Amino acid sequence: MRKRVTFNGVDVAYEDRGAGPCIVLLHGYLETGRIWDGFAERFLNEFRVITPDLPGHGASGTWGEVHRMEELAGSVLAVLQREQLEKVFLVGHSLGGYITLAYAELYPERLSGYCLFHSTCFADTEEKKVNRDREIHLVRCNKKHQIIQVNMPKGFAEVNLGSLAPQIERAKQLALENSDEGIVALLNGMKQRPDRTAVLKNTRLPLLLIGGMLDNYIPAEEFESLVNLAPHASVLRLERSGHMGFIEEPEPAEQAIRKMAGSL
Fold it and tell me: Degrees (nearest 5) of the Cα angle 254, 256, 257?
């Protein structure tokens, strides 16, 4: 069921499906909640699944030139408060992982556990900040299509580009639906986000780390640094995935999330 709630003066749209313990799936940059559609359906025999459009993307609104991760975590809380959900298992893909960590820092009592899915606790390097500024410039020059044409295929491992060509095209089409101002707001928010290593190290919250061993955005060695920081975490290494493991290797990803979310 498609629903909306107001947060910070804008609509936050989300899909609410199934029944049972709740899993919330937070999408990444240039994505919308619809990117999860096929993956979310895998859980509906046992779980309730909520997939928001994060403010700035999809059918959700934009409130300014910067969407801070803490504010975006607040928008997730607004959804869960509307649904009267006290605790959920939160899964964050890429940008969604940054928001998940902010949520875990601000509202740990409202989590049964969480998963970083191709994401990191580290702040942007100076090089990444420069790249985000370059993308902001392109968007403001009405050239977001150039970013999408490069970024969406780069999200997939090279070995999967042929077999997953329809899925890559769908990801591009979803990305094109995002507004220019929303893209800029999220880029600025990611650029300004702090390091949240301390949150990752918190042993009181159950944690699942999922990484793609062929990821062009978070190399395997960076993923291993996360694993070393959180020895309490459950870990899944997707050997044939890039940055889109819920599409590239959905079965092992589903099993890992199902196992953890179902045990809490």
Answer: 65
Spatial CA neighbour of 38 closest among 241, 260, 247? 247
Q: Do residues 255 and 175 lie in contact, with contact meaning Cβ atoms separated by under 8 Å?
A: no
Pairing mode, strands 88-93 and 10-18: unpaired
Q: What is the pLDDT of residue 200?
A: 97
Could you give the number of structural domains in the chain?
Answer: 1
Give CA–CA dist 94/241, Å, rounded: 14
| CATH value at residue 97 | 3.40.50.1820
User: Is the entire prediction scored with pTM above 0.90?
Assistant: yes
Q: What is the distance between the alpha carbons of residues 75 and 72, in angstroms, rounded to a whole number?
A: 5
The pLDDT tens digits for 112-143 are 999 999 999 999 999 999 999 999 999 999 99
Q: Are 93 and 246 in contact, with CB atoms under 8 Å apart?
A: yes
